[in-house]
Amino acid sequence: MKIAPIELTVQRAVKRYGGVVALSNGNLDVRSGEVLALLGANGSGKSTLAKIITGVVAPNEGDLRVDGQAVRFSSPHAARKAGISAVYQELSLVPDLTVAENIWLTHEPLRAGTLDRREMQRRTADLLALFSGAMRDSLSPETSIHTLPPDEKQIVEILKALSFGPRLMILDEATASLDSRQVDRLFNLVGQWKRDGMAIVFVSHRMEEIFRLADKATVLRNGESVGTRAIAETTERELVGLMIEGMHEFERRPPSAALASAPVRLKVEHVTGHGLHEVSLELCDGELLGIGGLQGQGQSELLLALFGALRVSGHVTISGEEARFKHPKDAMQKGVALVPGDRASEGLLMIRSILENLQLPSWREYGVPIRMKKAERDGAQVAEELRMVMASLDAPVNSLSGGNAQKVVLGKWLLRSPHLLLLNDPTKGVDVGAKSEFYELLNQLRDRGTAILFYSSDDDELLGLCDRVLVMHDGAVRAELAGDGLNRTALVAASMGAAG
Amino acid sequence: MTAKTYTPAAATVRLRRLPPPLIALILAGVLFLVGGLAAPGFANPNQAINIARLAAFLGIISIGQTLVIISGNEGIDLSAGALVTLGAILTFRISGGQNEMIPVALAAVLLTGAAVGLINGLAIAFLKMPPLVMTLGMAGVVTGLIYLVTRGELIGDDPPLLGQLFSEQLIGPVPGVIILWLLIGVVMWVVLERTTYGKHLFAIGVNRTTARLSGVRVTRTLVITYTLAGALAAFAGFVLLAFTKTVFLNLGDPYLFPSIIAVVVGGTLLSGGKGSYWGTMAGALVLQVLTSLLRALGIEPAGQMVIYGVILLLIITFYGRQRSLRQ
After folding, report:
1. CATH code at A259-495
2. Where would I find the H helices in A93-149?
3. CB-closest option in B199, B207, B274 to A345
4. What is the value of pTM for the model shown?
5. B20-32+41-326 adopts what CATH topology?
6. What pLDDT digit, counting tens, does each position of B208-231 carry?
7. Best mutation target, A350, A360, A408, to test chain B (most B CBs within 10 A)
8. What are the φ and ψ backbone dihedral angles of B216, each rounded to 5 degrees?
9. Would you call A252 an interface residue with chain B, using a CB distance cutoff of 8 Å?
10. CB under 8 Å to B169, separation ≥6 — which residues?
11. ipTM, 2 decimals?
């Protein structure tokens, strides 16, 4: 099968979201028969660049050319017509439709203007045959999507992108949910497509895969393309260096002397399940233990599991006592608190008042009928401690700014004086001022002896605040960095799953 | 705050800042007075008491409905009408018209209603049945069972004490049901605003993930809510018998939709997480004033239904706009 040649170039692409610059200078070029890897740390702009190519987002500035001609894609549909299709990690399948219906959605085979079901079945079977042996034989064009496990959904997503007969395909973290056999099969197929003349853009956080599959790699840093290297002529070290070059190292606060003798608050051994593999760690009172790694490597799941919101196997003790929490309430009774990752959907009751949000975990402690005066006093006190800017405690939370809303999420747990605080990327979408207040608060909590487990997608925070950082990759702890070993190079290398 | 300009637009904004229950209450008052102008003799104390008496009964049916709608996730109890019928029939049959059997009948009514509500709650919480489907199905099951067991022959009688307690004048000219209703209003305020259950109910109505991650036992709260709703709907049937003195097989059905509308007119969000029982009380009053007024004006039943429907749509549209202004 011969594929029509294509050459795609992007130059000086800029994408701003409000005042935030997601991409300041995106450049890449890729042509038929080539696999280009896009690399970068969290927030480097690689997803934005990929989305510009596929018409998902429109760039504010920049030059996008297909075969030398300037183009502007108004939608993914327009990009597909130009021969560009994409596989995303966030699946775009309709759960209630069948495999065949999903693959051919919007470009169903027609006969005399009506759906040609037989032709659709036949073509789907041909596509599925590409992965035969790498997934269940029972998978047929007629299977409903919602009955499929994540890996098979991902394969259907890949086949869907292929069904458009693209000249250029973008694989955005498309291997994340595949097992090694399926990855091998995909890589063989990519090799085949390449020989047929397809161009492929491969976004991955697995360094090993990049070296296996790609011909060249373009590295992004802080929204800017900072270099392109031929894979045959580069090393992991060089690529990691490009990803972090010029970013300064942090002055860390010296580890407190008391820490060495502090009792162990949390001990986790071999926790497995919900994507986690054999996670073990230890955390002392007064310690701030960072969790790093690229987004979606099991960090949220680990925190949720420790809080009793996800069931996992393994052994967890808190202050030496076995902790088998069936519900977050059990964890709360043992002095554990969790600040979840998504404020609006997990942390707050947006239409309820600030007071009700602050007291939600604690109403039980105020008796029946609730002693409202005392609840209000306590709420006002924590609001003052956190310097919340608000009209009154009765104002709804959705009237607050992002930083103040996050203070409510923190405040509701501070009211309970937790011994163990689990933080899931707590400064995401928070302004600079609120961030520095938050760092100050973390240090106060440490001085009071609170044990803190702190996941952040911002490497600077981890480097600046933590004594020790665990780097997670594919649900496992890939590296433990401390002392001189805790630096940006090591953090980024471990995030990418690079050896050493 | 030196100069205030009163324009119609400013007045509308001001009105919109009022809590919906207050708007509903004002509306009920205005409708009552307008009725007095339109139909001479409408606005008199006796009529007011009569309206309150009928509204009280609707309000009692709407207690459970309020809780269930606040619980969110399309929470609704369509089995309430069938349970009202069941409650009345059980009272009718078990008491057989004897006053001393009232406590036994009441216990049976509450337990049966709670059992039905418990099944609703378990299916909705654990089998993830949509509340609309589950409670609609349950309405069919309850009605069917009544037919099966009674074969349409409703034996029994109404105990006279029930009528004396609730329907007839108890304190001065005020019938007992109004006093009962006011007491329920106080209890419901305490339950919703001053108990952990109430706080948790609002929380699961807004966002169940947040609630769970804040230590709220979501499924338990949900099951309790539907169980309470079942028991309270059956209890409303017990009270209804005081008015009707007799029972028939679709006794409760005409009250089902007004019980939902009263909740919504009272400003409780159909999407859950926000509302109050005193809003529902005001809503029940609005509906009852409206019904009585249309009847007093001598409008034929079909016309009554049209006007009733249009006015309710206007009120609900108004609340909807008010919400979008706030968010």
Report:
1. 3.40.50.300
2. 99-103, 117-129
3. B207
4. 0.80
5. ABC transporter involved in vitamin B12 uptake, BtuC (1.10.3470)
6. 999 999 999 999 999 999 999 999
7. A360
8. -80, 130
9. no
10. B175
11. 0.89
